[in-house]
Specification:
By secondary structure, the protein is α/β, with parallel strands linked by helices. The protein has 15 helices and 18 strands. Bound molecules: L-homoserine.
């Protein structure tokens, strides 16, 4: 049964920023209008005001167009503000103003949530409105909803994910087709996957924003982006991708968060993962997150992680959630933004040198008798066990020694690396990549 015209409630959406996310959201609301109408029945979502620095209102087919996003926030007709500007400065002001004006806000801005989320979540709660940001993490995969709601009965032990589409696209192309890093990055930018500042993708900042958001919701703690360890993919070499493959691994850029004994690890870095792992087959712009929880065990979520349609899918889902919420609702009856009504503020966040991992090492040495013995002797001195070794001829007098270690503490590994680098026959810095284990 459908609603009569008099029952119909129109929710007016204002979109601030009309780039990949803003335009994608508007397009999807139009494209899937009839399905959305059927899901909502007596509520109609419509875009009435758009702010963009450069385009004119006639292009959009919406009632109002402004160059200043604050005009959208101040528009008394706008019920929900979609922040699709990105970055911190203006976006932060827009979201603060909208929440203070008691307007619900949807944002895809992971940098904003990771950096200022604690303040914004409190501001939303003080004003009795909601701040939703499903699209900020893993594009079209509803991972935040899964962590907050679907897994709400579980203790989450760890999660690990490929959460930057651009980085995964670059690594896939480098690995499968030996293409140059810079060339693939340009392509990802043209396809609308990359951040405005692509160093956020390749240096790991974007993945760290997303990891900080997931960790906070998974473990019920305030956002702690500033304590996340970050390493990107820009210094990975084709040789390492090739040698890892020979050893039965591939290299992925992973975000890993783990809680055990009140201690939290949050780290983003290239990782070797066994080719048998499900994450190893996630290619291109795809994202995937494995969540390990008690009692359910491991669950895997995968899908498109970047691009206009994936992001818009999550933004529109948030709009639909808001449309379904009663007009006035007490905080006790809404799902908390960070998944828990009470957050734990005193988990210890581990420094990277305290973590334990297995490692891949590549050591570039002069090809002398005894070099291998010197290296393995140092490993023995620091009680680090070796799991596998291969030796590759690089040029006439030079070989690459590739070692996989067993589990050891990173600080100890760093000490042995420092001693290895001091050996006369070692030609350059040791390459070290962590090996991910999914125990
Ligand atoms: N630049 C991001 C990525 C976009 O490549 O994953 C989606 O957050």
């Amino acid at each position: 049964m459908s609603a009569s015209t008099s029952d119909l409630r129109v929710l007016k959406v204002g979109i601030c920023g009309y780039g990949t996310v803003g335009r994608g959201t508007h397009d999807l609301l139009v494209k899937n209008e009839s399905t959305i109408a059927r899901r909502l029945d007596c509520i109609h979502l419509t875009v009435t005001h758009v702010a963009s620095r450069s385009l004119s209102g006639t292009v959009f087919g919406v009632g109002k167009w402004s160059t200043d996003p604050i005009e959208v926030v101040n528009d008394p007709e706008v019920d929900i503000v979609v922040e699709a500007i990105g970055g911190l400065g203006t976006a932060f002001e827009v979201v603060k103003k909208a929440l203070s004006a008691k307007k619900n806000v949807v944002t895809a801005n992971k940098a904003l949530i990771a950096t200022h989320g604690n303040e914004l979540v409190n501001l939303a709660s003080e004003n009795g409105v909601r701040l939703l940001f499903e699209s900020a993490v893993a594009g079209g995969i509803p991972i935040l909803k899964c962590l907050r709601e679907g897994l709400a009965a579980n203790n989450i032990n760890w999660l690990a994910g490929i959460i930057n589409g651009t980085g995964n696209y670059i690594l896939t192309e480098m690995g499968n087709r030996q293409r140059l890093f810079s060339e693939v990055l340009r392509e990802a930018q043209a396809l609308g996957y990359a951040e405005a500042d692509p160093s956020f993708d390749v240096e790991g900042t974007d993945a760290a924003h997303k990891l900080a958001i997931m960790a906070s919701i998974a473990f019920g703690m305030p956002l702690a982006f500033d304590k996340t360890y970050i390493e990107g993919i820009s210094s990975l070499e084709l040789d390492d991708i090739k040698y890892a493959n020979e050893l039965g691994y591939c290299i992925k850029h992973l975000g890993i968060a783990r809680l055990s004994d009140q201690r939290v690890q949050m780290r983003v870095h290239p990782s070797l993962i066994s080719s048998d792992e499900l994450l190893a087959s996630v290619d291109g712009v795809g994202n995937a997150v494995v969540v390990n929880a008690d009692p359910i065990g491991s669950t895997l979520y995968s899908g498109p992680g970047a691009g206009a349609e994936a992001t818009a899918s999550a933004v529109v889902a948030d709009l639909i959630d808001l449309a379904r919420s009663p007009r006035s609702i007490s905080q006790a009856h809404i799902v908390p933004s960070l998944g828990f009504s009470r957050l734990v503020t005193d988990f210890e966040i581990l420094d990277i040198d305290k973590i334990e991992s297995e490692y891949y090492l590549r050591i570039n040495v002069e090809d002398h008798v005894g070099v291998m013995a010197n290296i393995t002797g140092l490993m023995e001195k620091f009680e680090i066990s070796i799991d596998a070794v291969i030796q590759k001829e690089k040029s006439k007098n030079c070989v690459q020694i590739v070692i996989l270690t067993q589990m050891c503490v990173e600080q100890v590994l760093n000490s042995v690396i420092a001693e290895i680098e001091n050996l006369k026959s070692v030609r350059s810095s040791v390459v070290r990549i962590r090996v991910a284990s999914f125990e």
